Amino acid sequence: MIADIKKRALHRSRILEGQMRGLQKMIDNEDYCMDIITQALAIQKSLGSLNKLIVENHLRTHVSEMFEAGGEQREQATAELLKVFELSNNRGEKS
Fold first, then answer.
1. What is d(CA 73, CA 62) in angstroms, rounded to the nearest whole number?
2. What is the DSSP code (8-state) at residue 70?
């Protein structure tokens, strides 16, 4: 993993950990529902930021190498990226 991205990803994950503890406390304390929802949405946004960092690292490292290798590796990289794109676009949709 690229050192700078790793540092930022770990920082983001620690923030998320604190946000989750806060959310659990809010639920346990039976805080106002809209406040709990606001916290949950903030966590989702933070997860999105973490995902962006991980995708950036993947593109700069693994995908670059896979594309250079060509052939099956290139096809695998493309399939992985399409799968992540599909998963990100299906958030919140009902099956």
1. 10
2. -
Question: Mean pLDDT, the chain, as a whole number?
Answer: 93
Q: Which helix (H) or strand (E) holds 90?
A: none
Cα–chain-centroid distance for residue 39?
Answer: 17
Contact 46, 15 (CB under 8 A): yes
Element (H, E) at 69: helix 64-69
For residues 61 and 45, give the distance between their C-alpha atoms in angstroms, rounded to a whole number: 25
Chain centroid, CA 29 distance in Å: 28
Residues 3-36 have pLDDT tens digits of 999 999 999 999 999 999 999 999 999 999 999 9
